[in-house]
Amino acid sequence: MNGKAENGNQSKPMNFASRLIASIPRGRRGKHDLIVSQIMSDLERVDTDTAILVPLDGLEGEKMANVRSALNRATKEKKMSVATSTDEKYFYVWRTAGEAIQPSVPPAHSNGVVANGKMRG
C-alpha cells in the first residue's frame, strides 16, 4: 500500500495484527485439553462398571479442581454422564448410565462429587 487508505485518507498503522477469520481455530482448547482428551478417549473404551485411574502425580502441578472442571465441560458437550473420586494417588473417573449414581463398589475415599455438577446423596 502507498500509505493511503482506499478512501484516499492517510492510513494510520493498526494497533494490533490482523488475520483472516477462516484461519482462526474455533473452539476452546484450554491448558487442560491434553489430559481431558486422554481421559475422554479412555472413558469411551471402558465399560460403565470400570473406572480409569489418572495418577495425580501425572497432572504436573495442575489443580485437581481445574482438571475436574475442564472434564465437566467436555463431558457435558459430549452428553456423557460421569462420576469422579480421588484418593492420595489417583483421580478416578467412570461413566454412569444416565443419572450420576454411585457405583456398587466406589473407589476408596470418595469425595461425593460428580463431574456433571450433581452431588451423590
Helical element count?
A: 2
Q: SSE string, helix = H, strand = E?
A: HEHEE
- Termini, distance in Å? 67 Å
The chain-level mean pLDDT equals 76
How many structural domains? 1
What share of the residues does DSSP label as strand, in percent?
A: 5-15%
Oligomeric state, counting identical vs distinct chains: single chain
* Overall morphology: elongated
Structural class based on helices, strands and sheet pairing: alpha+beta
Gyration radius (Cα, Å) is: 22 Å
Main-sheet strand order equals: 1-3-2
The residue ranges in which pLDDT falls below 50 over 5 or more consecutive positions are 99-107, 109-121
How is the biggest beta sheet arranged?
Answer: 3 strands, antiparallel
Total beta strand runs? 3
Query: In percent, how helical is the residue content?
Result: 10-25%
Give the SSE map.
Layout: H1 33-43, E1 52-55, H2 64-77, E2 82-86, E3 90-95
Antiparallel strand pairs: 1-3, 2-3
Structural overview:
The chain is α+β, with helices and mostly antiparallel strands. The protein has one domain (about 30-120). It has two helices and three strands, in the order H-E-H-E-E. A three-stranded antiparallel sheet has the order 1-3-2, with helices on one face. A hairpin with a 3-residue loop joins strand 2 (about 80-85) and strand 3. The chain is elongated. The N and C termini lie far apart (about 65 Å). Residues about 100-105 and about 110-120 have low confidence and may be disordered.
